[in-house]
Amino acid sequence: MSTIAEVNTVLDRTLQLGGRSAKFDGNTGLFGSIAEFDSMAVVAVVAALEEKFGITVEDDEITADVFETVGSLVRFVDDKIRASR
After folding, report:
1. Which CATH number covers residue 28?
2. SS3 letters for the chain?
3. Domain span including residue 70
4. Count of CB atoms within 10 A of residue 1's CB?
5. What is the pLDDT of residues 9-19, one digit of tens each?
């Protein structure tokens, strides 16, 4: 499964989107674009991503740029995976 598909699955489950994430692509907006994706959801999504991918996200890495789009989040996750190897 590709990273984008896995990230979309995490988003769907964590935000309880009822399958809507299946239509998300790299350009899909996140923070400010999806009603369920608020500041509290960021914490839950980060925790779910850490668990799913075996990565650690530091507090100072949680920025608006990372959560701008699905694509920016996927790039962040891919970078964290590469750095952890």
Report:
1. 1.10.1200.10
2. CCHHHHHHHHHHHHHCCCCHHHHCCCCCECCCCCCCCCHHHHHHHHHHHHHHHCCCCCHHHCCCCCCCEHHHHHHHHHHHHHHHC
3. 3-84
4. 7
5. 999 999 999 99
